């Protein structure tokens, strides 16, 4: 991975995208989104993760965040959520795509020596340091407009799994620090 996509500044605020392998639409189920939210909340409480903005789309997650050891936090978050999301899919009797999703995660793991039986997230992550107010505003707008551009909602704050609610003055799903 090039240095361009790593969190090199321990005091920096980063825009990060985590993507499901093969862009599989996993986060169409509330239970799977809740697992990611619970994991992010844990990282906030136990791993010094500060969230400024976030959005869970159907096949990827956007975060604007910081932490003293951000790369380690994201590694742990991905490792934990991978295991528990795969288990949630396996144990969901209503999951109509179970066999297909598990096959896809297994196929991805077979191509990588660093994974066990299943690989949920694509390798690495896309880290962009938000070193200027202009970059911060651009990425914040992009993140919150994602569900609107995908035609899931008409207004950003209508998307439950996003910090857009907080920025609209409503109570969101996760605790965040508003970017002023």
From TrEMBL:
PANTHER family: REP-ASSOCIATED TYROSINE TRANSPOSASE. Gene3D superfamilies: Transposase IS200-like. The lineage of its organism: Bacteria, Pseudomonadati, Bacteroidota, Cytophagia, Cytophagales. It comes from the Bacteria. NCBIfam families: REP_Tyr_transpos. Residues 9-146 form the Transposase IS200-like domain. This is Transposase.
């Amino acid at each position: 991975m090039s240095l361009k996509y790593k969190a090199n500044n321990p005091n920096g605020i980063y825009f990060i995208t985590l993507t499901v392998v093969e862009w599989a639409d996993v986060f169409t189920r509330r239970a799977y989104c809740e697992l990611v939210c619970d994991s992010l909340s844990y990282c906030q409480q136990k791993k010094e993760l500060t969230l400024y903005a976030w959005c869970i789309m159907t096949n990827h997650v956007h975060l604007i965040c910081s932490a003293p050891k951000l790369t380690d936090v994201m590694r742990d978050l991905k490792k934990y959520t991978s295991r528990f999301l795969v288990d949630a899919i396996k144990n969901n009797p209503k999951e109509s795509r179970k066999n297909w999703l598990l096959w896809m995660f297994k196929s991805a793991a077979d191509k990588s020596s660093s994974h066990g039986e299943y690989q949920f997230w694509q390798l690495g992550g896309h880290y962009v340091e938000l070193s200027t107010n202009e970059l911060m505003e651009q990425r914040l707008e992009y993140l919150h407009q994602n569900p609107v551009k995908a035609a899931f909602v008409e207004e950003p704050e209508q998307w439950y799994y996003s910090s857009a609610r907080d920025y609209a003055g409503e109570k969101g799903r996760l605790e965040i620090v508003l970017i002023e």
